[in-house]
Structure to design on (254 residues):
């Protein structure tokens, strides 16, 4: 929205996000997430500290300091410092792993396993980013592993996990179709497919690095106009029906 509005006034803003949750490792994530902030931290913090010019040990120290400062940039709170520190640890592990592993061709298994691991690591770090205190973060993390809902304090064994997830997803349709759990499960699957398999907005409009998805690139045709009009109508209807909900703009707290 900001890029489009700026173009109305003849101002070209740089892209700021490029499907970061599709990243196969945390290094790639930071190349795609909040790219203007990443470049600022690189140019005005990491490189002045010495970058990677003074050996591996100093490089790791500079990376950690840069991420800690990036955390404090969001607010003077220990939770933001923890978020930055976690990402610093992630980056150190990623760089160390690449140095030990060496260059190898990527396969679909390594790419998707890397995406899953990166996504889970980033989500865990987001808990500290959003939580107001470490106590709140601990409660959220405990809930994420099922301590309150799925497991109710029981040890997280795989069999219990699978049975409870199946129950919550409404796989057993004794209550009739459509069960609320089934609809939630379908929504989750649909949104995951959209986020991970479809091109993002800039790829959708500009066909950036996505020749395989050329059929999904916008074109000035009646079919595209009808499809986007329908999508806009559905979105507008949802916005109107959900208009009475209070949704706080997250950056107001920073």
């Amino acid at each position: 929205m900001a890029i489009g509005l700026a173009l109305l006034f003849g101002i070209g803003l740089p892209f700021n996000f490029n499907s970061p949750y599709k990243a196969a490792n945390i290094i790639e994530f930071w190349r795609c997430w909040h790219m203007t902030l990443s470049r600022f931290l690189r140019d005005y913090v990491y490189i002045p500290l010495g970058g990677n010019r003074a050996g591996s040990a100093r490089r790791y120290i500079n990376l950690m300091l840069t991420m800690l400062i990036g955390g404090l940039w969001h607010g003077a709170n220990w939770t933001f410092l923890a978020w930055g520190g976690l990402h610093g640890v992630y980056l150190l592990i990623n760089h160390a792993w690449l140095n030990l592993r060496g260059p190898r061709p990527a396969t679909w298994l390594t790419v998707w396993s890397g995406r899953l691991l990166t996504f889970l690591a980033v989500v865990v770090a987001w808990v500290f980013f959003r939580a107001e205190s470490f106590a709140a973060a601990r409660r959220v993390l405990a809930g994420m592993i099922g301590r309150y809902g799925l497991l109710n304090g029981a040890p997280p064994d795989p069999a219990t996990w699978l049975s409870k997830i199946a129950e919550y997803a409404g796989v057993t349709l004794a209550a009739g179709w459509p069960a609320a759990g089934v609809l939630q499960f379908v929504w989750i699957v649909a949104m995951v497919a959209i986020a991970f398999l479809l091109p993002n907005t800039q790829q959708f409009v500009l066909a950036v690095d996505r020749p395989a998805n050329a059929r999904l690139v916008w074109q000035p045709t009646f079919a595209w106009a009808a499809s986007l009009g329908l999508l806009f109508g559905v979105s507008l209807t949802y916005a109107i029906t959900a208009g009475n909900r209070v949704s706080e703009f997250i950056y107001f707290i920073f």
Q: What stands out?
A: The mean pLDDT is 81.
